[in-house]
Amino acid sequence: MPTYISLYKWTEQGVKNVKDAPARIAAAMKSAEAMGGKTIAIYVVMGEYDLVGIAEFPGDEAAVAYSLALSSLGNVRTTSLKAFTPAEFAEIVKKLP
Question: How far apart are CA 24 and CA 50, in angstroms?
Fold first, then answer.
């Protein structure tokens, strides 16, 4: 399955209710699974973003649906990145003219 890295920023609502964040993270992991995905890791981080998630989904559509579902709850805003392994990248490069 393709891998996706998501960068999360808490909204004002998310920070206001930060004590509920551990339960929300657990619920998000279950939601990913229900949408056919698998959470590899979630980290709370310091800096520009508040959380970083690494997950696998069957495809781009499922990954986008998951991000939209999380954002629609109002606690986070997401930036999602599709990730390629070194082997996948090597295959992409082979296709260059």
Answer: 14
Taking each helix axis from N to C end, the angle separating 60-72 and 21-34, rounded to the nearest 10 degrees, works out to: 150
CATH code where residue 40 lies:
3.30.70.920
Specify the number of domains making up the chain. Answer: 1
Q: What is the mean pLDDT of residues 7-31?
A: 97
Rounded distance between C-alpha atoms, residue 8 and residue 50, angstroms = 6
Structure-block tokens of residue 50: 């508040």
Report pLDDT digits (tens) over 34-82: 999 999 999 999 999 999 999 999 999 999 999 999 999 999 999 999 9
pTM, to two decimals = 0.91
d(CA 84, CA 70): 23
Measured distance CA(17)–CA(84) in Å, rounded: 34
Domain extent at residue 67: 3-94
Kindly state the percentage of the chain with pLDDT values over 70: 100
